[in-house]
Amino acid sequence: MPSAMRELPCAACGSKDYRVRHEARLPPVDALDFAARRAGQRYHPRIVQCRDCGQIYSNPYFADEVISGLYRKAKYITEPQLENMTRDYLREFERAVSGRARESLRVLEVGCATGFFLKAIKDAGYRLVQGVEPGEDAVSRAADDVRPYILNDFSGPRRFHRTHLTSCAAFKSWIICLTRPRSRKRSTRFSRRTEFF
Fold first, then answer.
1. pLDDT by residue (tens digit) across 34-72?
2. Which of 2, 5, 65, 96 could cross-link to 60 by cystine, CB 3.0-4.6 Å?
3. Would you call 30 helix, strand, or coil by DSSP?
4. Cα 91 from Cα 14, distance rounded (Å)
5. Mapping DSSP to helix (H, G, I), strand (E, B) and coil, where does residue 83 land?
6. Which pTM does this prediction carry?
7. Domains annotated on the chain, with CATH
8. What are phi and psi of 109, to 5 degrees?
9. What whole-number distance in Å separates Cα of residue 96 and Cα of residue 105?
């Protein structure tokens, strides 16, 4: 296995027993390029299914250093529908936190890009906001009044402590995999008052 990849156990149950569903389709690691919101290149790591719980996931997957590097140097692509997206996200956010005090609600957005959503919720009266974004280009395009609230870092499992999540009342991420078929295990505990959207 190339050093750029690492074997993973099933995130749902911890098993290392799986069957291969689809072989990897990847270019050489030094030819990889990442940018959100562009036409797909149909690349993917090997896709496996856990024999114990049925979870489908990628294994092996890129080492943290590879992912971090790809995200950090990715070019930000402006979304033409950004105003509509912001309005839709704000509506869903306000529905999820309905009845909570805006001034004291702590919000964390992982993968915040330029901070457009953070800016929208700050403008709507939410003051305790924080974003994490690994892309340097995206953070450099953030509005001056929201940039100080963005941590330009890659929030891998060893870099992002659980207390950051449990201290927040609302948590937003572009992609959250919480599917755990036939499994009662929880790998991360969140406060009962944490909202996901």
1. 655 555 667 788 999 999 999 999 999 888 788 778 778
2. 5
3. helix
4. 37
5. helix
6. 0.64
7. 5-73 (no CATH), 82-196 (3.40.50.150)
8. -115, 120
9. 12
Structure-derived torsion over alpha carbons of residues 97, 122, 92, 113, reported in degrees to the nearest 10: -130
Q: Are 121 and 143 in contact (CB under 8 A)?
A: no
Identify which of 117, 106, 138 has the alpha carbon closest to the alpha carbon of residue 37: 138
Q: H helices then E strands: how many in the chain?
A: 5, 10
Q: What is the pLDDT of residue 35?
A: 59
- Report which secondary-structure segment, H or E, holds 67: helix 64-73
Rounded Cα distance, 187 and 185, in Å:
6
Per-residue pLDDT band for 176 (boundaries 50, 70, 90) equals very low
- CA gap 1, 26 in Å, rounded: 13
